[in-house]
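Give me structure tokens for this 330-residue protein.
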Amino acid sequence: MATYLSKRLGGLVLVLVVMSFIVFCLQAIIPADPARALAGPSAPPETIAQIRTELGLDQPLLVQYGTFVRHLAEGNLGTSIRTRQPVAADVLKYGPASLELIIAAMLLGTSLAFILAFAQTTMRRSGAVRLGMLAAGSFPIFLTALLLAYFLWFKLGWFPGSGRLDIRRFTGPTGFFVLDGLLLGRPDIALNALWHLALPALTLSVPIAISVGRSLNSALVDVLRQPYIRTAHGKGLSGGRIFLRHGLRNAASAPLAMLGLQVGLLYGNLLIVERIFSWPGLGLYTVQSFASSDLPAILGVAMVFGAFYILVTMLVEILQSIADPRIALQ
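Here you go.
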């Protein structure tokens, strides 16, 4: 395990260096002047020249890249043109909202995937379940979000359609409002945060549930045909017990790999979902940065999500080795 972690962390550093080079090249190629954007459209040329000197934009590209890498190593992702704040500070400000939404979506998605796979495996007539999964999986994420918002918020009023809380100003020790409500002894805030979390988390969980559920079902079909499963049936064990005790763990490798792939797609879906539900996280922050041509903010958030995806991939590989000891960590 120690050798695996050391190699993976070394690979993480290498990938981040490559990503930093790509990000720097994008900053150099795209025809946008950060000094002009920071100074404003009516700033005199002297002010723009001074800002370019302060940012080091008048230096050779190799020197600029060295400065860029040094700043990244120090946790400096640049300065946002739109908020005029360090991008790292903006990530710390808006990151907990997105991370809370991602965790809720992954928990809900894996739970729904487990239920769908269990229904298809144990029910004799599971055609309706397969048809429902096919229909839900054919919807693009923005259409799923709009349909859920229209019916569950606008028509029925079961859930709110925007924001994280009914309270306008609330600060907690962690930034995770559900957890903060519990830590502060305010279950009303925790329940209200869960109420607001329901629609965006459900929207993000649908692709996860469909893809992981189908992968789990396919793996279970192969596993449940094995001789030891027939032996378990011969011993009189129930279908549910065989599914949980003998089938699920042996079929977990492929669904875990699919779950890791879904995390990679989560960033693009997050931009859409946070925009539709006005969720104040990194997705909405990135969309607003696109509208303002805020290149440092966009690329800074991309670096953060790239590192997040690599760490999740490591976790998935570890879980695969735990579920199936035949899979060695290499």
